[in-house]
Amino acid sequence: QVKNKAPAEVQITAEQLLREAKERELELLPPPLQQKITDVEELNDYKLRKRKTFEDNIRKNRTVISNWIKYAQWEESLKEIQRARSIYERALDVDYRNVTLWLKYAEMEMKNRQVNHARNIWDRAITTLPRVNQFWYKYTYMEEMLGNVAGSRQVFERWMEWQPEEQAWHSYINFELRYKEVDRARSIYERYILSRALAVLVLVHPDVKNWIKYARFEEKHSYFAHARKVYERAVEFFGEEHMDEHLYVAFAKFEENQKEFERVRVIYKYALDRIPKQDAQNLFKNYTVFEKKFGDRRGIEDIIVSKRRFQYEEEVKANPHNYDAWFDYLRLVESDTEAETVREVYERAIANVPPIQEKRHWKRYIYLWVNYALYEELEAKASKRTRQVYQACLELLPHKKFTFAKMWLLYAQFEIRQKNLPLARRALGTSIGKCPKNKLFKGYIELELQLREFDRCRKLYEKFLEFAPENCTSWIKFAELETILGDIDRARAIYELAIGQPRLDMPEVLWKSYIDFEIEQEEYEKTRNLYRRLLQRTQHVKVWISLAQFELSAGQEDRLQRCRQIYEEANKAMRSCEEKEERVMLLESWRSFEDEFGTDAAKERIDKLMPEKIKKRRKLQAEDGSDAGWEEYYDYIFPEDTANQPNLKLLAMAKLWKKQQQENEAAAMDPDKDIDESQT
């Protein structure tokens, strides 16, 4: 046992051990001693020892075929062919399914020019293991190399009886072609395609490509009638149940090479009418290329249109509510089709009403109706059908849940183009009564403005504002209309009604428009009153700055004094504002004013009022109340606030002193409390 288990002072790694072993060449074994054989007796002794070693290895494990092969190859190297043959035979008794063993055995016989023995071995191999293609390939190759063509053909025939894979048939065909035996190759192709059993055609290799190869073989050897016959037989054989586009493409290309263009066109059309469109993409492509090469312009356009039409038909059949596919389909149909066909497609498209009455599901669908109406009006020139399309669409829409203002407006504009103003007004009036919307009111008002019907515009604005009194844009447009018509008092009354509304969507825009209106009328006192009324509602810094700029631009003699007073008043009002950035904005605007119009004393005073910008840190908290770290921010310290800080500190000390006085008085008024405290 090791008493000292502490690590050694010098540590040796495995890498160092390996490097040392390599440097000292510890793993290198000395080469074996060379034995020189000088007489026959010594040679026989060497052979005996070597054979004993091989036999011992075989006896230990008979199933290791590599030992048998090494033994046989050693005997072969000594030219002991009979002994090697005996060893191979013994090995085959052990494992006759071993392919390598048969190959080595046959190769030994061929190397030693034992042809009959080699034939015997190949015959036994293909009889024992007929599904091993390598034996057949080697056997036929040997016979062909020996010039025994008849023997090689006989081996091929024996092989074909087992119905091997495709490559074997092609090897047989290529063999016959090497010796210019075209008729024999043709007969092999016939057997390759079909074999007769019990007087009934039984399919051996039903793949279309085999028929095509057969036909190309005939074409290659200039037997064009035979090639056409093969294609026709293939078409008849597969029938309409198992049609394949590759067969028809190959057939058409063959006829194209023979300059039979009408036959090519018939083949393509026959296939396109019967093969499902999703399986005929390559067929369409080749037909298009053919028409571009040999057809006229009309034929090219027809094939392209028909191809795309089939694609769209498949898409809309798969999903009838795919409105984008309908749009593409209709765009294609409108390009080059009769009106009745276009109408039929439109009717099919609009029949797919969205199943859910929610507007988001109808947004794409409604454009089918829009495009239908525009087609009838602009392309078909059928105003009566256009009116029917619009009316059918408006009857279909569920107006109690939602509507589309664009449909009402398009219908009204259509009636105006037809010079039928009463119908247009009736449609817009119906829309406002059924489903009032801002867009409908705006469209109706714009129509009446273009017609210069101002009384109708006033009535529509009144209805509009009853429907949406919070819409500031409507109030402004109404007041602007009255201003244009020269009725200033009505415009001012409209603005007063507007700013008196309890709820507005954009009050700042409305107040600005009212103030601009009074400035345009040069009513400066009313403008000041408006600003004061607005400041009673909000103390926003932009309102103060706007008021100051108004006073500056009013053009009166005391405008600078008034402007400076506004800034003074705004600064006092903004001291209690929590948003220090707004106060800084006000002071910067004031400083810009003084830089342009003020004296040096006024500029110096403003500079003293400007705050100091400092960087601070504050603690952040996450939503769950945990600490989220610190962040830096900029704060502003105003000189006026700094001056007031001692007073604030004094007030806090006074409050603390008053609280202590109240506690002392309470203790004096309740002596029992002191007794209880002393006992405890």
From TrEMBL:
Gene Ontology process terms (BP) = spliceosomal complex assembly
A Gene Ontology term for the protein's cellular component:
nuclear speck
Query: What Pfam families does this protein map onto?
Result: HAT_Syf1_CNRKL1_C (PF23231)
Q: What is its main location?
A: nucleus
Q: Which residues form a coiled coil?
A: 517-583
- Where in this protein does the record put region Disordered? 660-680
The compartments listed are: Nucleus speckle
**Parts of the chain that traverse the membrane:** none
- Domain Pre-mRNA-splicing factor Syf1/CRNKL1-like C-terminal HAT-repeats stretches: 66-354
Keyword Nucleus in annotation: yes
Q: Which UniProt keywords apply?
A: Coiled coil, mRNA processing, mRNA splicing, Nucleus, Phosphoprotein, Repeat, Spliceosome
Q: Read off the SMART domains from this record.
A: HAT (SM00386)
Task: Extract the PANTHER family matched here.
Answer: CROOKED NECK-LIKE PROTEIN 1, PRE-MRNA SPLICING FACTOR
Functional note = Involved in pre-mRNA splicing process. As a component of the minor spliceosome, involved in the splicing of U12-type introns in pre-mRNAs.
Q: Which family does it belong to?
A: Belongs to the crooked-neck family.
Q: What is this protein called?
A: Crooked neck-like protein 1
Gene, per the UniProt record: Crnkl1
